[in-house]
Structures are given as C-alpha cells and as structure tokens.
Design a protein that fits this description.
This protein is α/β, with parallel strands linked by helices. The protein has 2 domains: 160 residues, NAD(P)-binding Rossmann-like Domain (Rossmann fold), CATH 3.40.50; 126 residues, N-(1-d-carboxylethyl)-l-norvaline Dehydrogenase, domain 2 (Orthogonal Bundle), CATH 1.10.1040. The chain has 14 helices and 9 strands. Strand 2, helix 2 and strand 3 form a beta-alpha-beta unit. The radius of gyration is 20 Å and the shape is elongated. The protein binds nicotinamide-adenine-dinucleotide. The site of nicotinamide-adenine-dinucleotide has 26 residues, from helix 4, helix 7 and helix 12. One of its GO terms (molecular function) is NAD binding. Belongs to the HIBADH-related family.
Length: 297
C-alpha cells in the first residue's frame, strides 16, 4: 500500500481522499480550512501540520485546489511541495485549472525530478463520494501507468488524453459543450412554452431525436421529465453556476491563446456571467432557463 499526501480536502478532495483510505492507503491530508480537515479526519485521513509535512514521506501527492494560482502557489518555490517531497514522487493535480498553469505544473515537476500528471475530473461531489468520477489525464505514459491504480480507487473511467495539459484541455472542451448545450436546451423549452408545447411532449420527442444530449436527458432544466434533475428541487446544485462560469472562462482563455474561434462558447460565458451577477452563483447551472424565460416577452 502506498503513502499518499492529499492537499485540498474540500467538497471534492474530502471524499476522494476517503476513497483512498478505504483502499487501504496511508493518506496524509492537509487543507487551510479547519472544517475541511475535521471532516477528512472523521473519514480516516491522518492530518499533517502543513502541506510540506504531508508530502515528506509520500509516494504520491494529489492536489485538489480551487484554481491555477492555488496549485502553482502550493507546489513551486523554495518552500513549495516540489522542494519538500522526495525526488521521484508522483504529483497528480486533479483541480480544474487553466492549460497554461497545468503545463507550468508539469515543467516545475520535471525540473525538480518529480513525475507528474494533470488529471481533472468530471462527475461532481456525488461521483467523488461514490468513487465513480471520470479522470482525464495528461502526462507521460509512465506517469499515467503509475497513477492509474490510484485513480481507479476514486473513479470508474480513466482516460489518458495525451501529454502535459491534455487532461485540462479535455475538461474545458467538454464543459464548453455542456455550457452551450444547457443554454440550447433551455432556449428550446422556453420557445416550446411560447408555442404551447408541453414540457413532456418536447422531452419525449427531443430525447429520442437529434436534439438528444446530456443537458436534456440527465439534467433536464424543467421539472417533471427527469425526476432527479435539479429543476425538481428549485435548482439546488448539483453543479453550481459559479463553477460552470469558471470552466467557460477557462475555455475562452484557452481559445484566445490558441486562436480558436469559439463564438458560442464566448456567448455562453457572457450569459452565465450575467446569470451569476444577479445572485445566482450558488444555484445549479440549469437554472439559467429561468433567466432566459424572464427575458422572454
Ligand atoms: P472546495 O472549495 O470545496 O475545496 C478546495 C479546498 O482547497 C478548500 O477546502 C480550501 O480550503 C483548500 N485550499 C485552498 N488553498 C489551499 C492550499 N494552499 N493548501 C491547502 N488547501 C488549500 O472546491 P471543490 O468543489 O472541492 O473543487 C476543487 C476543484 O475541483 C476545483 O478546481 C473545481 O473546479 C474542481 N471540480 C469541482 C467539481 C464540483 O462539483 N465541486 C466538479 C469537478 C471539478
């Protein structure tokens, strides 16, 4: 069994670390939040006094932090985790961060003699709890092979997407599809309402026709057709609009840098930005349908 350091024990990291404990690993955790640490300790994670202390004897270090600056701030520099860990330690960053920061993470790891993988996830808090996350990984074949048995304890689908940063690239491309498709499905339901079409009739047709997509069949933005979707609980997340906006901004940042034409992605980011500005950051992202409906004459 491996010694694993887990840095960032929040909504996602806490249950992910708990699944590594369940697999029989010695998991040394650290978080800046006392509440996150207490919750993780209750699930069998042994707490370290600092992140540097947590990684000292680790074979594998997993980071699950909010954004690129948090990750680079934690791992780089004279008092960062690359300096504190033993040479050859495998660093897995599962946070959703920008592609440029992910590449800097890999470059820093290589310079320090560490192995590294960017491995963001899809599947939300429910997937983290159940150990059914999808991991999309970027890095060398050797790093991927070494990480895979550990990722399999936290997820059920593990995809090697390519070299450094490829996991983050796949994540933001997927979530750009998600943001755009949720708006498309919401606009279709609002148009259907104006045309006198029932929600169920539109669902029955589109879910078995060419309009079929995850935003419709799993996460339907109107109550009724999919009883488990957040629309049935007044848009409690689920996947909060603030996280959707974060990912759409990351995809637009990457598109600008890469020179890709993503006009619908840009429009989706603008709509979610306006939605968030009206106090909806903590609501499920499928609540955008109410914002669209409110603008319909
Ligand atoms: P969270 O805010 O619940 O957890 C982040 C944790 O990191 C917090 O507990 C915070 O105290 C801790 N932290 C920040 N800086 C730190 C540092 N320097 N050292 C130690 N701990 C530090 O966020 P989350 O929902 O767990 O998300 C984590 C990452 O996963 C984000 O990048 C997010 O975009 C991504 N993600 C989230 C979801 C989701 O549904 N919540 C789904 C997929 C991906």
């Amino acid at each position: 069994m491996a010694v694993i350091a887990f840095i960032g024990l929040g909504n996602m990291g806490g249950p992910m670390a708990a699944n590594l404990v369940k697999a029989g690993h010695a998991v040394h955790g650290f978080d800046l939040s006392e509440a996150a640490k207490a919750a993780a300790a209750a699930r069998g994670v042994s707490l370290a006094v600092s992140a540097a202390e947590a990684v000292k004897a680790a074979d594998v270090v997993v980071t699950m932090l909010p954004s690129g600056p948090h990750v680079l701030g934690a791992v780089t520099g004279a008092d960062g985790l690359f300096a504190a860990a033993r040479p050859g330690t495998l660093f897995i960053d599962s946070s959703t961060i920008d592609v440029e920061s992910a590449r800097a993470f890999h470059a820093g790891a290589e310079a320090a003699g560490m192995a590294s993988l960017d491995a963001p996830v899809s599947g939300g808090v429910g997937g983290a709890e159940a150990g059914t996350l999808t991991f999309m990984a970027g890095g060398s074949e050797a790093a991927f092979s070494a990480a895979k048995p550990h990722l399999e304890r936290m997820g059920k689908k593990i995809v090697h997407c390519g070299g450094a940063g490829a996991g983050q690239a796949a994540k933001i491309c997927n979530n750009m599809i998600l943001g755009i498709s949720m708006i498309a499905v919401s606009e279709a339901f609002v148009l259907g309402e104006k045309l006198g079409l029932s929600h169920q009739a539109l669902f029955d047709v589109a879910s078995t026709s060419s309009g079929q997509c995850w935003s419709l069949t799993t996460y339907c933005p109107v109550p009724g057709p999919v009883p488990t979707s957040p629309a049935n609980r007044e848009y409690q997340p689920g996947f909060a609009a603030a996280l959707m906006l974060k990912d759409l901004k990351l995809s637009q940042q990457a598109a600008d840098q890469a020179g890709a034409a993503t006009r619908l992605g840009a429009e989706a980011a603008a709509l979610y930005s306006a939605f968030e500005a009206e106090g909806n950051a903590g609501r499920d992202f499928s609540g955008i349908i109410e914002w669209i409906r409110a603008r319909t004459a």
